[in-house]
Amino acid sequence: MAVIVQHCLEFSPLNNPSATIASPIAYLFVNDFNFGRFGVILFFFISGFLIPSSIANQPKPLVSFAIGRLFRLYPLYWFSVVLAIAVMAVLGMKLPSLAMVLANTTMFQLLLGFENILYPYWTLLIEHFFYILCALLFVVGALHSALRMQYVAALAAGGIILLSCVLIALPAIKYAKPAADLMYTASFLFAMIVGHNIRMAQGSDQRQARVLIAAAFVVVFAFIFVARVRVGGYSLLLSPASVFFSTVGALAVFLLALRWRAFTSAAFVYLGRVSYGLYLFHGIALWVAMALIGKSGGTLHFALLILLVFGLALATSALTFNLVEEPFIALGKLIRRRVVRNAGHKAPVAALFPSPAEVTQEDALQPFSKEAT
User: Fold this and answer.
1) What's the per-residue H, E or C state across the chain?
2) Tell me: the pLDDT tens digits for 114-135?
3) pTM score, two decimals?
4) Domain assignment of residue 280, yes or no
5) pLDDT in tens, 133-186
6) Residue 162 belongs to domain spanning
7) Which of 60, 167, 358, 372 has its CA 20 to 30 Å from the CA of residue 211?
8) What pLDDT, on the 0 to 100 scale, is given for residue 342?
């Protein structure tokens, strides 16, 4: 929801990089707080908190994990690519090349030298980096060890701080920009590592560990802030200060939500279920809304833009959750169960894939039972 607000704001009169403190809301939006960065960092904390536990100590754990991620992420993502191209054609927008479309089906298009068809896709590449990191940490026996993960977090923090110090001291060196980009990506992975460490320190006797983890995160981003100021900032609407305050704000909300069990109402739970679709489809909804009502020209117009984008994205997400996400999540879970069950002996490949009649709604919505795992 925060990302949707941010992207709508960027098409409003508040999109004014020259705003002064005389226009406090516009000045705050451009210089001091970025809703998109807040939402993305919160998303990375949640990923770190949840995803590593998907790699269980069971037969074929990494194969099972990969199957789960494949069926969870790709079907709806592919649908969003097709829908984006269809809407672009209807609205008369420039269509991507076939090579760009094919590259975008992988989620690794940026590594292949192609742009994202939809800008929000960039976070999915970071997610894949984290999945690979989780798999490596599992192989070496660190992923489910609180002490070892604290060492991993300390190593990551030290590496980012060291790189920051180099950029602070030598902002004009030849490879400053690639180094800043590396620090940029590493900071997101660090947020997910912190989320996992907080998950492992959830016991009542682990308060000191949680405080130290949170403090280390703030210190790391303070170094990143200074380094980005020295190197030259991010982009027109993403200042070093806005990144720092938004990131620390996301950490605060994440920790308070855990402590107070916030966002547990039925409405928030449902939004959580369809949030992947909201993220994938809101850019398409923004195209449609802009075509219908144009750029925001005032407060009421901006409110209409927000409502229209959120309404279109939510309707699309709700529909595709039932028609695409649930069936494929269910199929993925059933295949994972069969992989685990057949891990001790050879089985025909066809035996791993269930018939449609075997895939139920319960498979999509319920976690693995002890018997299944």
Assistant:
1) CHHHHHHHHCCCCCCCCCCCCCCHHHHHHHHHCCHHHHHHHHHHHHHHHHHHHHCCCCCCHHHHHHHHHHHHHHHHHHHHHHHHHHHHHHCCCCCCCHHHHHHHCCCCCCCCCCCCCCHHHHHHHHHHHHHHHHHHHHHCCCCCCHHHHHHHHHHHHHHHHHHHHHHHHCCCCCCHHHHHHHHHHHHHHHHHHHHHHHHHCCCHHHHHHHHHHHHHHHHHHHHHHHHHHHHCCCECCECHHHHHHHHHHHHHHHHHHHHHCCCCCHHHHHHHHCHHHHHHHHHHHHHHHHHHHCCCCCHHHHHHHHHHHHHHHHHHHHHHHHHHHHHHHHHHHHHHHHHHHCCCCCCCHHHHCCCHHHCCHHHHHCCCCCCCC
2) 999 999 999 999 999 999 999 9
3) 0.89
4) yes
5) 999 999 999 999 999 999 999 999 999 999 999 999 999 998 898 999 899 999
6) 2-365
7) 167
8) 82
254 pLDDT more than 70:
yes
Q: What's residue 366's pLDDT?
A: 45
- Whether residue 293 lies inside any domain: the answer is yes
At residue 373, the pLDDT reads: 33
Domain count, the chain: 1
Nearest to 65 by CA among 190, 153, 73, 44: 73
Tokens of 267: 């409405």
